[in-house]
Structure formats: C-alpha cells, structure tokens
Amino acid sequence: MDMEVCNPSSPPSKQRILSQKIDSEGPYRLLYCSSKGDKSGVIQELDKGVEPNLGDYDKRTALHLASCEGHTEVISLLLGKGADVNSTDRWGRTPLSDARSGKHEQICEILEAHGGIDPTGLDSQTPFYEIDSSEVDMEESKLIGEGAYGEVYLVKWRGTEVAAKNHSFFHLIN
C-alpha cells in the first residue's frame, strides 16, 4: 500500500484506538492525511463523518499532527470543522505547543487567534521526554506495540526499562 498517497477504498470503521499496523483506510486516515498536508484527503474523511478530534494512541489529534508538520491549510480546515484548538495529548501538549516546537510562527498566530494556549509555556521550544539514542540499549529491545505513527519498544535507558518510540531519537512514554 502506498502510504504517501491517501486513496480511500473502504468506509471508516468505528472510532477505536488501534495498536496494530497503520490504518490508512479507516478513521485513522484523517490523522495520516493531516500529518502529510493532504487537504483533499482530510476533506474526504471529514465528509465521511470522521470526528475531527479523533486521537491516536498518544491522544494526538489531526490538529496536533498538522500543527507539528506545518500544514497551514489543513489547520484552517480542521478549525473550521470544529477541531478542539486546546486538545491535549498524553504529555499535556496542545497543537500550539507542537507548532511552537516546530517554529511554525504563522500557525502559532492562527491557533492563538482561535483561543489556543500552550500549557508548556516556553518549554515547548524543547521537546518533552527526548533522550539521546546513544543512552538506549537496543540490543535487548522488544517491540511492544505499533500504531498509526510509530513503533513502541521496551528498552533499557540508564539501566531502567522504559517504553520508547523508535525515531532518529527516542521519546519516553509515560
């Protein structure tokens, strides 16, 4: 399946959090298309009745993902369709927190104009729970989950077992 193009081939399923493979054809297609800046894909999913505040396993919404990636048109569309400008993910971050971390000034202005707040304050300039991959022992890592936006591993960090997403760096999952 080509993950760069959002082509629907089945109707959305009931809202539920998946810990399996990426679901680019169900309601999680809204999240995927939002993260890629695919405005027409986002419109298609919203027109199917997918809730604009649908969250992934980290409680990140389409607005979080579009804000993080700098997709202004998608953000305006989601806000117009009732997306919660102050939804919080599992780390207490809002779409504005993500836009600030990504240094997306125009998006920050849009979100603030819609009442967006950043409960992390100035700390949003530095990602939360980021750890240096050199501190993670991957030799005995164990895949413990997969979701729409990454794999989660049980790894050792400074001698302690933690759950971490695998990226070019790691984010601790609390």
Overview of the structural elements:
This protein has two domains: 29-124, Serine Threonine Protein Phosphatase 5, Tetratricopeptide repeat (Alpha Horseshoe), CATH 1.25.40; 130-173, no CATH class. 29% of the residues lie in helices and 19% in strands. The protein is built from six helices and five strands. It has helices at residues 29-36, 39-47, 62-69, 72-80, 95-101, 105-113, and strands at residues 130-131, 136-147, 150-157, 160-166, 170-173. It has a five-stranded antiparallel sheet with strand order 1-5-4-3-2, with no helix packed on it. Helix 3 (62-69) runs antiparallel to helix 4 (72-80). The radius of gyration is 16 Å and the shape is globular. ATP binds at residue 165. Pfam families: Ank_2 (PF12796).
Comma- or semicolon-separated keywords:
6 helices, Kinase-like_dom_sf, 5 strands, alpha+beta, repeat, Integrin-linked protein kinase family, nucleotide-binding, 174 residues
Short description:
With about 170 residues, the protein is α+β, with helices and mostly antiparallel strands.
Describe how the helices and strands are arranged:
Layout: H1 29-36, H2 39-47, H3 62-69, H4 72-80, H5 95-101, H6 105-113, E1 130-131, E2 136-147, E3 150-157, E4 160-166, E5 170-173
Antiparallel strand pairs: 1-5, 2-3, 3-4, 4-5
Helix pairs in contact: 1-2, 1-3, 3-4, 3-5, 5-6
